[in-house]
UniProtKB/TrEMBL annotation, chain A:
Protein's UniProt name: Succinate dehydrogenase iron-sulfur subunit
TM stretches of this protein: none
Family (UniProt): Belongs to the succinate dehydrogenase/fumarate reductase iron-sulfur protein family.
Swiss-Prot/TrEMBL keywords: 2Fe-2S, 3Fe-4S, 4Fe-4S, Electron transport, Iron, Iron-sulfur, Metal-binding, Oxidoreductase, Transport, Tricarboxylic acid cycle
Cofactor(s) this protein requires: [4Fe-4S] cluster; [3Fe-4S] cluster; [2Fe-2S] cluster
EC number(s) recorded for this UniProt protein: 1.3.5.1
Pathway where this protein functions: Carbohydrate metabolism; tricarboxylic acid cycle; fumarate from succinate (bacterial route): step 1/1
Organism (species): Vreelandella subterranea
An example Gene Ontology biological process: tricarboxylic acid cycle
Stored InterPro entries: 2Fe-2S_ferredoxin-like_sf, 4Fe4S_Fe-S-bd, 4Fe4S_Fe_S_CS, Beta-grasp_dom_sf, Helical_ferredxn, SDH/FRD_Iron-Sulfur, Succ_DH/fum_Rdtase_Fe-S, Succ_DH/fum_Rdtase_N
Swiss-Prot/TrEMBL catalytic activity: a quinone + succinate = fumarate + a quinol
TrEMBL record, chain B:
Protein name, per record: Succinate dehydrogenase hydrophobic membrane anchor subunit
Function: Membrane-anchoring subunit of succinate dehydrogenase (SDH).
Compartment annotation: Cell inner membrane
Domain of life: Bacteria
Biological or metabolic pathway of the protein: Carbohydrate metabolism; tricarboxylic acid cycle
Cofactor: heme
GO annotations of cellular component type: plasma membrane
Residue spans crossing the bilayer: 21-39, 59-79, 91-113
Record keywords, A-Z: Cell inner membrane, Cell membrane, Electron transport, Heme, Iron, Membrane, Metal-binding, Transmembrane, Transmembrane helix, Transport, Tricarboxylic acid cycle
The keyword Cell membrane is assigned to this record: yes
Length: 236, 115
């Protein structure tokens, strides 16, 4: 079996005037390993290769990248899922500034996350025990709280590419709805007021790239639809 | 909240609702027009003017014209804010678009009541 041909994006702003693609030959010994394993094999050949990783099991969200044109987590993506014709092309998450090789600057992504105030707000007196929820109220948070902020969705969204400073993006909006839907949160109307402009929510055109790439199988488009419903109910 | 002063309704929610409402109006108008033309294969000038002489048809057509104007402005405003990053170019394009829409709207009203 021939070696896997890997083409990877390289850019070191201290030494390179422009980014370029570097070719690697990786011997996977015929095993269906994860893309992250291939990256480690490449790092053995060239220790200067930079990429982020941590838990290597799809929980930390560090190794989001573009693999053969589709965003995903390298650690939980087997070669059999992405490799076509023995070739693998790896690029950093699209749309974010590259710091070096596969490492991107997530500043704008986190800024939008911070903007939606991703924490419980409740102005009623603190009870002696926990703020209780019925099982039905708790069920509304399923499919929302599981997000690991890997940025695969937001960086696959053209609306986020064009206006990352104004459009909250699918990841931020999924979390926004997670707090809008929480029965214990009392800041609902303030949260909605901050979202009704033409950019924050409404720049979503519903193309569902976010749903197609989410490694956790979440559905930001559905959450955005729910936010629109809440805005409509609140303002008409 | 992101500030803007050139969008149709100054609010994403109102623009979104208007875009959907105008789309429904345009869909109904299109279906009506296609059906009318299919059901009247030997259409002549007199039948056509008779159709547009009726008040309900003028109201329906004016509603469709205004829907086109609003729909086009909301859609093209979105396109300009996505792709035109230079403020000078973007405001220039938005001015041209709104001018063209205004001309077409007045022109359409003149045709509707001018015959």
């Amino acid at each position: 079996m021939s070696n896997l041909q890997v083409s990877i994006y390289r850019y070191n702003p201290e030494t390179d005037s422009a980014p370029y693609m570097q070719e690697f030959q990786v011997d996977t010994k015929g095993r269906d390993v994860m893309v992250l394993d291939v990256l480690h094999m490449m790092k053995e050949q060239d220790s200067g290769l930079a990429f982020r990783r941590s838990c290597r099991e799809g929980v930390c969200g560090s190794d989001g990248m573009n693999m053969n044109g589709k965003n995903g987590l390298a650690c939980i993506t087997p070669l059999s899922e992405v490799v076509k014709g023995n070739k693998l092309t790896l690029r950093p998450l699209p749309g974010l500034p590259v710091i070096r090789d596969m490492v991107v600057d997530m500043g704008l992504f986190y800024k939008q996350y911070e903007r939606i105030q991703p924490y419980l707000q409740n102005d009623t007196p603190v009870p002696a025990i926990e703020r209780l929820q019925s099982p039905e109220e708790r069920d509304k948070l399923d499919g929302l709280y599981e997000c690991i902020l890997c940025a695969c969705c937001s960086t696959s969204c053209p609306s986020f590419w064009w206006n990352p400073d104004k459009f909250v993006g699918p990841a931020g909006l999924l979390q926004s709805y997670r707090f809008l839907a929480d029965s214990r949160d009392t800041a609902t109307s303030e949260r909605l007021t901050d979202l009704e402009d033409p950019f924050s929510v409404f720049r979503c055109r519903g193309i569902m790239n976010c749903v197609a790439v989410c490694p956790k199988g979440l559905n930001p488009t559905r959450a955005i639809g729910k936010i629109r419903e809440m805005l409509l109910a609140d303002a008409t | 909240m992101v500030t803007n002063i050139t969008s149709f309704g100054r609010s994403g929610l109102s623009d979104w609702l208007m875009q959907r409402f105008s789309a429904v109006v345009l869909a109904i108008y299109t279906v009506f027009m296609v059906a009318y033309l299919l059901l009247n294969p030997n259409l002549d000038y007199y039948a056509w003017t008779a159709l547009f002489d009726q008040t309900w048809m003028r109201i329906f057509s004016l509603l469709a014209f205004i829907s086109v104007a609003a729909h086009a402005w909301i859609g093209l405003w979105t396109v300009t804010t996505d792709y035109l990053k230079s403020t000078f170019v973007r405001v220039g394009a938005q001015s041209l678009i709104i001018l063209a829409i205004f001309v077409y709207l007045v022109w359409g009203i003149q045709i509707l009541w001018g015959a």
